[in-house]
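Hey, I was hoping to borrow your eyes for a little while. I'm sending you its amino acid sequence along with the backbone structure tokens. Take your time with it, there's no hurry, and the full record follows here.
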Amino acid sequence: MARAILFGLLLGAIATGLTGCGGSSSRPTCPAGQSCLLYGNQSEPETLDPAKATGVWETRIIGQLSEGLTRRGADGMVGPGVARSWTVSPDGLVWTFKLRSTKWSDGVPLTAGDFVYGIGRTVSPRTASQSAFLLYPILNAQAVASGAKPLEALGVEAPAPDTVIIRLEHPWPTLPSWTADRTMRPAPRHVIAKLGDGWVKPGSYIGNGPYTLKSWRLGDRIVLRRNPNYWAEPACFEEVAFYPTTDPVTAERQVRNSELDLNLGVQSNRLRYLGRPDQMPEYVRSNPITAITYLPFNLTDVPALRDVRVRRALSMSIDRAFITDKLLAGGQVPATNFLPPGLEDYTSTAQPYWAALTFTQRQAEAKRLLLAAGYGPQRPLALTLKHMSGGDVAVVVPAIQADWAAIGVRVALEQNETQVAYAAYENRDFEIGTAGWISFDALNFLDLLRSSSGGQNYGRYNNPTYDRLVKSAQYEPNDARRRALMGQAEQILLDDAAIAPLYVGSARNLVSPSLTGWIDNPMDFHTADRVCRRPELGAGGVGRTP
């Protein structure tokens, strides 16, 4: 799925003075006689191209500008989108989608060929999409992405204007969930042929979603306008403005003062405070999600991190319970394995050998491993931990730094903006990083660390046995055997300490009680077109839920 900002954007200890009773609202003016939704979206998008985006903060906007064969409802469940129906062959290898009559936002009819073109853009090496690996279950997708086969060999066809056929390398039961993903959106060939990469700019962006792109002011907001050519019932709001709320304390105040209708990513250590009866309990929305926060290790360019003893020592010496229970206190759960609970068709039982040790025992074992690897008081290990600026990470990384100092490891902290940090990870410009992943699909988590997965396998983990087990799980039709193969693969990943899992994530959002249609779900998936406003509460949205 998309990479996640799993950090609640926390700036420090609780500072109640920053979010007192508020003061007057400076809510932006909405066009006369219309309704507008102001959506706090955590970070500034790098792109709104479905084939090139990687962040959930980008996907939220793209999901309003374009729509796939299927789409997710307010509860996160998948249903018909552009495809009104679909069937699958008995062997699970051929899916046929029948399309309803729809148009692009410029009025041009949308056809099955637009899906062939759009999916092909994600896989094509010319696009250089970091998400191409997500579509490798499609016939010949990996060979096309590597340049070994031409784009025409990709197993996506349009035998008729209203029919899309997807042929697979192996059964992919969750395909209808993936056809709702941005990686499988249609693309307007008639526009891209003229404008190239410039097609995603305001005034040029042609989509098929419930909204169109009206304006984009960097560092300020992205404004969407309701699409009159969208096939389904019109969204409640004529306009939606997405704000990059990189400072959650400021965003919290803006929601309180009705300058924002909602904001995703409440800073974790303020959740309990905001839930107090005298604060904003009617705004707080929190629930467990299928997400993991972890530390990727650069296994290629950092000699010390090529040694599994060093990686194990670093991972086991982190006090995860202290981070989740004392520092964050936002519903996160300590994780020593990689796959979170709640995934479809898989419950993890894999654990590193040290998981049952006490923290004191783990610190002692970590020191022993470092000495065996040649590091100690006479030769201390020095590393750099690159992380996003602000957010939960501002509290998490100093705690990790202190844990590592306790075992004799010197760690420098280097902060970057979210987009800059992830770009550095994809280019291996880091030693240790902070990252997150969210998905509904267990195999998708494991696929992330395969050697063929490209830049989002940040540390370039490469274990042929692991690769073989994940591939075997993908091809295995028997449910029990597939789960067993996934368990073996995850255990190898943990034995190799290719990454250091930290904690299972939680959704932490502020939502005005004036809004309806918001449903908490394990993917923390919330589209603006499914949200409406209670008319009796007005645009300010400061009333309480009846």
Summary: Residues 2-23, 539-546 have pLDDT under 50 and may be disordered.
